[in-house]
Amino acid sequence: MTQIDVEQPDTLARKIYDGLCREITSGKLKPGTVLSRRKIAAAYGTSYVPVIEAMVRLEGTGLIETESSQMARVCRVTLESIQHTYVLREAFETQAIRLACEHATPQEIEELYQMAEDVQASVPQPETAADRQASEEGLRVHWLFHRRIAEISRCPLLVQELERAELHQRLRANWIYVPEMAEPPRQHAMLVDAIKAADVEAADAVMRAHVRLGLEKELHHYRLQSTRRQD
Amino acid sequence: MTQIDVEQPDTLARKIYDGLCREITSGKLKPGTVLSRRKIAAAYGTSYVPVIEAMVRLEGTGLIETESSQMARVCRVTLESIQHTYVLREAFETQAIRLACEHATPQEIEELYQMAEDVQASVPQPETAADRQASEEGLRVHWLFHRRIAEISRCPLLVQELERAELHQRLRANWIYVPEMAEPPRQHAMLVDAIKAADVEAADAVMRAHVRLGLEKELHHYRLQSTRRQD
DNA sequence: GTGATACTGATGATATATCAGCGTGTCAAG
DNA sequence: CTTGACACGCTGATATATCATCAGTATCAC
Fold this sequence. Notes:
2 domains, globular, homodimer, mainly alpha, DNA-binding, disordered N terminus, Arc Repressor Mutant, subunit A, 3 strands, Four Helix Bundle (Hemerythrin (Met), subunit A), 3-stranded antiparallel sheet
């Protein structure tokens, strides 16, 4: 999306990948939906050779899964899958903030404080709670903040991996509604505080707690809604 | 390789992927080598449709890179690429040992102690130093140990990511000779000690130091040999 | 009526063919 | 000797065709 530096060859395979990616992360394609290469090719008006590349890429991203040489399906959401992606996210984000402590310039720190405020401001007010639109905007701003930390770590691989985690979260967010409960104030500003203090261990601890809080929140609502999701 | 649980459909794309993977990690294909899909198809006696899938997979694994719609090449080894893969490895391994602290059974801890001894034993004796064969065996045992920790973390995604890191290391190991210097004794046993004590923070610290030591060693020899590698 | 067999349609895997882009070499004109 | 243009070959991207497999269904024999 914001990959300005990466050349995007205007290839059909790329378009199909982007299209499927959007369809999955936007909730148009439900987890568990089977994906026929031929039907996708027909839907996009292409032959299905480009579809092969797109699907393999999607599998690498982790948005689809193919079990035992059968048809591919949109990744299903289970308690384990949620936990496991948070394990990875915790690994990435703590590592990112550790490096950010070492590399962040004063200007970047100021920028992060501004973004932290934006995140805080995007927490829906009571009247807009349960507003899907506001929730999505909040999610977007939230990821922007975390992504910026990864960028400041100066490790492109971390950014890339974090993006994958974001895609997963977006996939789930369409089926697990996690209301943005009023967070303790300065939740994110505290992360920037730690970076500013360049206290690596403290930053790690704060970020770890932050990610785990997110996991607990999502798991809580997943359990609440999993009974109703028996369709 | 040891993916017993994962079904390996006997497909040509899979064979090409495995073949290329082996050629790259064994050093038969030099970093920077350009890979023509048609030539690969010819070499494997297939059409090049299966090659597409294999190459996209390899790109996902990070063993090959395609810059700006040009031909794909075997990933080149640079100072940055080494550092970045170690950043990821540090993230994975510290996360893995943290979870291992929580999940390891007494039996698994015993097993790890045994493997740690094997690693220690595989450190080449002075007379076999600079022995390529012994070095490879040492590397193998070493990764077996780390991989086991990841397995004990009960998070398959961590194992998977660690495997990618291992592939990268194997790719580099053919071009950067890192002699197994005599390590401080109980280097790896200390990791198991931390797991046994279930001291998450200590385990994290020990593992982080262990990985960074590996990075320093590899960077040191990379710098030593980089002048000679101007061919 | 029941069970087995054959047919049908969909799928993924693969092969072959076509197209456009890009570099390179060669040959002719200046 | 330089320079420019054209042709050839290689590349990746894509389309189309063929194959085996498998599931579902219908049909036929008993």
